[in-house]
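Submission sheet (multi-component)
Chains listed below:
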Amino acid sequence: MSDKSTDDYWKANVRIITICMVIWALVSFGFGIVLRPLLAGIPVGGTDLGFWFAQQGSMLTFIALVFYYRGYMNKLDAEFGVEE
Amino acid sequence: MPSLAWKNKGSYEMDQFVINLIFVGGSFALYIGIAIWARAGSTADFYAASRGVNPIVNGAATAADWMSAASFISMAGLIAAVGYGNSTFLMGWTGGYVILALLLAPYLRKFGRFTVPDFIGDRFYSQTARLVAVISLLVMSITYVIGQMTGAAVAFSRFLEVDSTTGLFIASAVVFCYAVLGGMKGITYTQLAQYVVLIIAYTIPAVFISLQLTGNALPQLGLFSTHTATGQPLLQTLNEVLMELGFNDYTGNHGSTFNMVLFTLSLMIGTAGLPHVIIRFFTVPKVADARTSAGWALVFIALLYTVAPAVGAMARLNIITTLYPDGVQGEPLAFDNKPDWMLNWERTGLLRFEDKNGDGLIQYYNEANPPQRAIDEGWEGNEMVLFNNDILVLANPEIANLPGWVIGLIAAGGLAAALSTAAGLLLAISSAVSHDLIKSMINPGISEKGELLAARISMAFAIALATYLGLNPPGFAAQVVALAFGLAAASLFPAIMMGIFSKKMNSAGAIAGMIVGLGSTVLYIFTYLGWFFIPGTNMLPNTPDNWLFGISPLSFGAVGAALNFIAAFIVMKMSAPVPAEIEALVESIRVPKGSGAAVDH
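Outcome: structure written.
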């Protein structure tokens, strides 16, 4: 495997990590805390969407993110021939 | 010692004691059976279960390793007490697993060693870096283990009527059996069993309560469903009754948004930097399995963490409904009519009522912001003078009138949560001593057999130390968790992350970063909470107006981590670049291929 392809593999990895971490921050620090006032108009079971993200939605999104990243990386590993 | 709740209730008492004994004794027999089956024969067995653990099994073991007495017993009570503001625990303690899965676990697994200081020492080609990592690890793991041992002792004394000293010795003996004998291998499979016990114990009462209040069997949905008794959403009802009693509403934000963000972030990166969690990912066969395993760990953790906020809100509403049987505008509950569970828990000293105005009724309200009714009727103070948050989960089955076997299950579940975490911490401590101090620093020539023996002896010493500290808790048990997370966030997490994501980070930079992160965090915490948590030695009062930029000492871990990164980059720029072989090492850990070769060293 050439250095070029190792570099490309790592760049692709850092790119998908960045995307996932932006979503990670958006659902927890964003929707769950800082942006909650913006979501106040969307009612969910006696409260608002921000509360749901803080106590349920962020955790469910985290699970989805980790499994998405896993699937993405399995494909990327195979594509670059670096899987075990 | 607080006597047992059901002890004072005629024939019921014996039955409940026998049921608890059967559940706890049965679960212990299972753990010891696993220990005998999963004995460790080599250091690879002892430190990393020979890297042969199925990723889903490892996910469940990680969940049990992670979910301590604090998650099982205290968390729902913490959320119930504050409402929305304490969502920080839910997001912080799960969000850390995204960091682990994406930023740390796969690369550390690829590196293929046994401990966290192993990685830091080799990557930063420095025994000093290794030693700083060992010291951070020991401080955070030992402080953390004290809480688990005292938690186990309390559960014993409450459910099995032994005094807490005896309880502590029983807990230590059981952990000794499977941890010393089986090492990581024994711990992994007992943690799997403990996960099953604790999740069943947590879920069953929650499902019953959700059904009772909302008719929805899934607590996660019940929390946002219609409250059957009032016909409006459960959270709306809860908000209304709380505000009528002068409390803050449940779903509103009543604290500083800034500290909420910072505290959540500190918990997240602290979680990702805890060595006893990280080493669980060394047990799976492949790098891809480490990613899978982190996903399953999060699924298994979320099974409890998404239920906890429902338990909190529903239990809070249940308690108010019990105290105001005719609604919060109706007549409060009479002292003579207290249900059994209140009488039971009053005996433990964790719940206390006081008839301040002598009218024989329990007026529960917020004294600091008394409702109009309290003024009109001349109430003389809140009469539920003490409600310890820990009651909530433990008393849940009694509050909801569930059968005795559910109480036995809760007892076994609480113990499973405390013991599984204690075992993981003890392994992190003993491997840091036998592997990092003895094998890597003091006596590199030690034989495989000698190292295994050293690992077992350090484990035995760690258990003895934990037992001693459990018997003589240093009086700051409540604050130590903040310290452990702060240290993990500010010292180990940044060092590991820079070790993977920066090829240029050198030993001087990493050491400077760890010392600055560690030092600033310890200093900030001690400034407000007292030197070594000794009361009265704090240099500034622990109130928001004294905090630097309004940062709570509990939230400082994230700031310490930032200072770590900054110090590391400044020192890196001023010192010698990394050797070529270290750059090659970093390149190799970034790709999964070839992890098998690195197992032995």
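Remark: Chain A touches chain B through 44 residues (CB under 8 Å).
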